[in-house]
Design goal:
The protein is mainly alpha-helical. 54% of the residues lie in helices and 10% in strands.
Length: 232
């Protein structure tokens, strides 16, 4: 699997051995910070309610409060990320998601690693180290993400289906290089967002792949994308 970064945006392009392109739009420090503030507010809210409840128990409630404190500040992000598809409530509100840097779901070890290393990213104060690392890294990763091989991406809830709007599959007229396969799949995914004229223009460029350009070439390109993705 290979990875490329573009200079024009913060999208991490991951190419699988089958030539399928996974586009991972990296999230910057602003939405991540807002998500963190939301999660922090939730944590303190849980602790406030817990303190009110355990205060009724007396001294015995102190141990319960410490246990809840530990779970809220260390277990909360790990459990949410692993059990809820990489999203804490704050990340869900900002439409963000934690994933492995190859696009796979984040696992237990990776989530534990990235969250334990928050203690380093927080130094010297206010996530100073994490912010410097995020601005230096092309995909905005803090040190915890780099070590855990994870990243935070934008994950809109209203994402359109990636299935090309054409049924059936057709093999290309000639073998395609990995970059060419990725370009055909990307065209198919975005075809509905382009004007008919722009689709036809791009199809003319790709005519050697399908043998025809224009409107018919658009349909053929989408059928080739189905073939590349193993869809019939």
């Amino acid at each position: 699997m290979t990875v490329r970064a573009t200079a024009l945006d913060t999208v991490r392009n991951v190419y699988t051995p089958e030539g399928v392109a996974l586009r991972l739009p990296a999230a910057g420090p602003v939405p991540r910070s807002i998500a963190w503030l939301i999660d922090t507010a939730i944590r303190w809210g849980i602790l406030l309610v817990t303190s009110l409840v355990v205060s009724l128990i007396g001294k015995a409630g102190y141990g319960i409060y410490l246990l809840v404190y530990f779970m809220v500040f260390w277990g909360y992000p790990i459990l949410c990320e692993v059990l809820f598809d990489g999203q804490t409530p704050g990340k869900r509100a900002l439409e963000l998601r934690v994933v492995a840097d190859d696009g796979a779901p984040v696992g237990w070890l990776a989530s534990i690693t990235r969250n334990l290393l928050r203690t380093v990213d927080f130094l010297p104060v206010g996530y100073g180290v994490g912010l410097v690392a995020g601005f230096a890294d092309p995909w905005g990763r803090r040190l915890g993400d780099m070590v855990a091989k994870t990243m935070v991406i934008h994950a809109p809830r209203d994402r359109q289906s990636l299935r090309p709007p054409v049924e059936g599959a057709q093999a290309p007229l000639k073998p395609l290089q990995q970059q060419e396969q990725a370009a055909v799949i990307a065209f198919s995914e975005r075809a509905t967002q382009l004007t008919p004229e722009r689709r036809a223009e791009l199809a003319d460029i790709a005519a050697p792949v399908v043998g025809v350009g224009g409107a018919l070439g658009v349909l053929r390109l989408q059928a080739v994308a189905n073939w590349l993705l193993g869809r019939q």
